[in-house]
Amino acid sequence: MSYDHPIEIVENDVLVVSVVDSDGSYFMWQKGLTEEVGSEDGIYFEFNDQINGRHNQATKCTVTNGGIQVLLANGKLEQFYFPPNFNKHQELQAGLNKIYTGHGGIVEFSI
Questions:
Q1: What b/e readout covers 7-35, taking b as 16+ CB neighbours within 10 angstroms?
Q2: How much is the pLDDT for 1?
Q3: What is the value of pTM for the model shown?
């Protein structure tokens, strides 16, 4: 069985890139594509609950074959491990490249 959660969606001029595992853990990035929906606000990153979501809190993202590590602005490191059936590394890379266009050096891929 393949991974069936959509990696990238655009809804109401907001680009959303996300990954989720079987126990409900997730990482999600959002970026407004127009001024009306906050394109000047920066990149929103959230993990596992809305209480953990903020703009411009992800300072470094490293994606490997096994998962993602995100260094937060407060110095904490958050990790997401891909589920065994994850087969969308290229889609994730393309989506994160879109999210971080113009923000060089934040996202790194080792896949």
A1: bbeeeeebbbbbbbbeeeeebbbbbbeee
A2: 57
A3: 0.94
